[in-house]
Specification:
The C terminus is likely disordered. This protein has a seven-stranded mixed sheet with strand order 3-2-1-4-5-7-6, sandwiched between helices. Helix 5 links the parallel strand 2 and strand 3. It folds into two domains: 161 residues, Vaccinia Virus protein VP39 (Rossmann fold, 3-Layer(aba) Sandwich); 71 residues, no CATH class. It is α/β, with parallel strands linked by helices. One of its GO terms (biological process) is methylation.
């Protein structure tokens, strides 16, 4: 099957990211990257069990931290966590991120994959106060130039600067061309940031993401190689042979040989 068909076959909660909980180490890395401090009003949109809000309040001493999630079950878990840690349960709101009040935000963690939600939220983010930082994971907001990058974490800062996909990729990687080694390194960074250390699953995700990075770069004309590198060919074959997943069709250049 084509990779798009494989993705559609996955449970919706996996695709949307609703059931993906960031490890504590990732929250700390993100908050250090944001330079969160006592002057910040922090929002976690899609806060899950509330661990990120707890860390922001207890370890980074933010002025205010609000977790928003549309799952009653998740908010109940978050309020229980708050109670166990002597935090205010009012820090957690069972609301839709698209309509939640975030006007006073100075820093936001926003990790969604639904393009419709992302587009709606981008419009909302544009109206926030200048200097407000929105952290996304893996990629910046659509058509926005990253303000800072510590891959896979990306800061988008209000007011946004426009960028096309090629400009975004070059800003993320900070180099003139992308080879297989770079694609693999960045894919591995992403896997380590979100994964729960299941070796088999982690390697599969890293293979998929490294191919996506390299193919996108190739289609934009910013790979270091003219031809397909041997490791890329090998991983394409592994996906096809052992998992029945085909990615070759994603390449725009039909003259490339496998």
């Amino acid at each position: 099957m084509k990779i798009e068909e494989y993705i559609k076959s996955l449970p919706n909660d996996i695709i949307s990211g609703n059931e993906v909980q960031l490890p504590e180490r990732s929250f700390r890395k993100i908050f250090e990257f944001l330079n969160l401090n006592e002057n910040d009003v922090f929002y976690h949109l899609g806060c899950g069990d509330g661990e990120g809000i707890k860390i922001a309040l207890q370890e980074f001493h933010v002025k205010k931290a609000i977790g928003v999630d549309n799952s009653k079950e998740k908010i109940q878990q978050a309020k229980k966590l708050a109670e166990e840690n002597d935090l205010n349960g009012e820090n957690f709101l069972c609301q839709d991120a698209v309509t939640a009040k975030i006007d006073d935000a100075t820093a936001i963690l926003f990790w969604f994959t639904d393009i419709e939600i992302i587009e709606k939220m981008k419009k909302r983010f544009q109206s926030l106060q200048d200097g407000c930082k929105i952290v996304t994971i893996w990629g910046p907001l659509p058509e926005c130039l990253p303000a800072q990058v510590d891959f896979p974490y990306i800061i988008n800062q209000v007011p946004f600067k426009h960028a096309n996909l090629k400009e975004q990729l070059l800003a993320i990687f900070g180099i003139k061309c992308i080879d297989f080694v770079t694609a693999w390194e960045y894919a591995e960074r992403y896997t380590k940031a979100i994964a729960s250390h299941n070796t088999e699953n982690d390697r599969f995700l890293t293979i998929l993401q490294s191919l996506v990075i390299w193919i996108n770069a190739k289609n934009l004309g910013i790979t270091c190689e003219d031809d397909i590198p041997v490791p890329i060919k090998n991983y394409m074959e592994i996906l096809k042979k052992f998992f029945g997943i085909e990615v070759e069709h994603l390449l725009n250049d039909t003259n490339l040989k496998f």
